[in-house]
Amino acid sequence: MKRVLVTDGLQAVGVDALRKHGLDVDVxxxxxxxxxxxxxxxxxxxxxxxxxRVTRAAIEAGRRLEVxxxxxxxxxxxxxxAATERGVIVMNTTAVAEHTLGLLLALARRLPAADVTLxxxxxxxxxLQGVELLGKVLGILGLGRIGSEVARRALGFxxxxxAYDPYLTREAAERLGVESVELDELLTRADFITIHTxxxxxxxxxxxxxxxxxxxxxxxxxxxxxxxxxxxMALARAIQAGHVAGAALDVFEQEPPPAxxxxxxxxxxxxxxxxxxxTDEAQTAVALAIADQVADALLRGVVVNAVNLPATDAETxxxxxxxxxxxxxxxxxLAQMAEGxxxxxxxxxxxxxxxxxxxxxTLALLRGLLGTILSEHVTxxxxxxxxKARGLKxxxxxxxxxxxxxxxxxAELYTDRGVASVAGTVFFKREPRFVQIDGFSLEALPQGWxxxxxxLDVPGVIGRIGTLCGRRGINIAGMQLGRERRGGRAVSVLxxxxxxxxxxxxEIRAMPxxxxxxxxxx
Length: 522
Known about the structure:
- 33% of the residues lie in helices and 25% in strands.
- By secondary structure, it is of the alpha/beta class.
- It contains 17 helices and 23 strands.
């Protein structure tokens, strides 16, 4: 009988469910690293919440460990890389959509302010008049798993749902009953806006002062995703000016926020202390879900909501490891180079690599592509399913012919605005290289910060960019270029030791003869 250790006070219904599946379950409180490492060796499964940190040392001590189940969404307390290296599945559960709808209703009907004033002995019915949701436009930023669930529930209020998600096809949005729009259109049309995107360098202050100024007058904002997606000071000013009617926030850039935070002083703002899944029903659902997931993985080999999963046996993985890394970087590169909604990814395998399993390379590329742009933790297990759900067609072709390289992996990403492509190979069985970018031949090292620019092949372009980098203290670690013909177009890749700020990138884009310039992080 397989054994499972449960920590952190998982609800009893979850523990009972594990036992009903036929697992031998032991229950403990929150365990320190040493305590967990001392106990974990006899168990195939571990279920935790957030108090117990599952470190590399604990994972390495789990000689029989097969699966770690996180009863919740975040896996920051688990060393996922160490688990992956050990072949241990890490899975999670989440529940946020209902809290979003609760804040939406409270914001529309001004319920917290009504509660406070009445309890203070004031009958201020006319002053606290709210608005109905019926017929209002709800704008959703990010139509992933949580955003899609919010859309389904909001449709029950007969709201009109519009969404901005540059990585979702219009067809996929329409299947949800959602109108896909560009960001500017969403900002000017939506009566309510709710955010469900990951927090990255690109999405930090996604709604900044300029974006808030473009909102429809009287719009209301909900953020249950991540602190930092909204410029909180700019939001406070927009509410004080009367341009934004109100906001409901479950997350903040600093948690807890300081007592003198401007948003906490405004009656029009509803705040909750990161309660996205903090209900009895949600906790029960999470406990039952993680129990079923762990049991399925241990007893039936069925994996759901995995955040990591080796796609092959150890020997094949070791053999393919350099190409797996290359394919993932190709996906990440395309995600940052392409513009518009993704429609199709075409992969071509050529040469000796055709004799090895290539499906895992396709998954690795999709993991890099989708993982760069989505809030979901994309793995080899779910990459293809996510691509399908988002209307991204994936095609794979193979040929034994490869004139220039022993093995060549090529990928083209088609969007509604064009196509981006990259091809790569591995030198000396371990050194990945990009050997084509948008059809231009070169040999670029795919790592770190990469400045990629296309230009007319005329004298002075490289010199001007080198001068700019020197002026701004940015060291160029390497450079590769390719051109179609003398005087035609050229593509160059500069490996930089440090990132280039937006102002410098804009300066390059404004230079004569520059066609495009992108900063890519691999």
